[in-house]
């Protein structure tokens, strides 16, 4: 199998990001964004996906974490799409239900080439998590889905603790990505012959 890897850089007035990704890795992850909770969530995602991931971001966290989180999601999604290449042979669809203490999240996705996000249950999250508004994480998932060109459904099913809910979501996303990216065949899994 061809090595499925990509490197992405992005520099704006808000963030400077450097990212390298190997899809079929060993779960070796190094993330430094200047926002500890983001580092924690992206480390979980990469580990559970089995990615080798190195991501550094110098963002305008003196404002808040919004641009850092949003751009990290976009770059990670772009790297994932690039690493998969023509997507021939992948399972394409993946899902996972992951508990974290009292919280349970379900993640379902399709590497369809048609970006879309459904994010349900976010009313369970407290208004502020790790010093930032809870809606910040919707922006991450939206940016990731757009960059990766995937149809992504995340359902926070139940739970009380915002950290636990998000941790189960990021672990679930990683596991669902691992399953969807698995090579199971030679042909492209599409009756129309295209994933766009």
Order of helical and strand elements: EEEHEHEEEEEHEH
Largest sheet: 4 strands, mixed
Please report the total strand number as a whole number. Answer: 10
Number of helices: 4
Structural domain count: 1
The CATH homologous superfamily corresponds to Imidazole glycerol phosphate dehydratase, domain 1
Helix content: 25-40%
Name the beta content range: 25-35%
Name the CATH class: Alpha Beta
Enumerate the spans where pLDDT stays under 50 for 5 or more consecutive residues: none
Straight-line distance between termini: 23 Å
Strand arrangement across the biggest beta sheet: 1-2-4-3
Structural class given helices, strands, pairing?
Answer: alpha+beta
Second rung of CATH, namely the architecture: 2-Layer Sandwich
| Radius of gyration from the alpha-carbon trace, in angstroms | 16 Å
The CATH topology comes to: Ribosomal Protein S5, domain 2
Shape assignment: globular
Mean pLDDT: 94
Pfam family, one: IGPD
Pathway: Amino-acid biosynthesis; L-histidine biosynthesis; L-histidine from 5-phospho-alpha-D-ribose 1-diphosphate: step 6/9
EC number: 4.2.1.19
Protein name: Imidazoleglycerol-phosphate dehydratase
């Amino acid at each position: 199998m061809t090595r499925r890897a990509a490197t992405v850089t992005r520099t704006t007035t808000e963030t400077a990001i450097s990212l390298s990704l190997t899809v079929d890795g060993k779960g070796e992850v190094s993330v430094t964004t200047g926002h500890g909770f983001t580092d924690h969530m992206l480390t979980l995602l990469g580990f559970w996906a089995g990615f080798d991931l190195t991501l550094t971001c110098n963002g305008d966290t003196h404002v808040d974490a919004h641009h850092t989180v949003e751009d990290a999601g976009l770059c990670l999604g772009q790297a994932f799409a690039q690493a998969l290449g023509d997507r021939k042979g992948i399972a394409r669809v993946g899902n996972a239900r992951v508990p974290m203490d009292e919280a349970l999240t379900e993640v379902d996705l399709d590497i369809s080439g048609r970006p879309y996000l459904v994010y349900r249950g976010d009313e369970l999250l407290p208004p502020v998590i790790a010093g930032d508004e809870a809606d910040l994480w919707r922006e991450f998932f939206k940016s990731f889905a757009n960059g990766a060109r995937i149809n992504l459904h995340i359902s926070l099913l139940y739970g009380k603790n915002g950290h636990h809910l998000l941790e189960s979501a990021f672990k679930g996303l990683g596991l669902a990505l691992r399953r969807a990216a698995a090579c199971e065949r030679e042909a492209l899994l599409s009756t129309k012959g295209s994933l766009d």
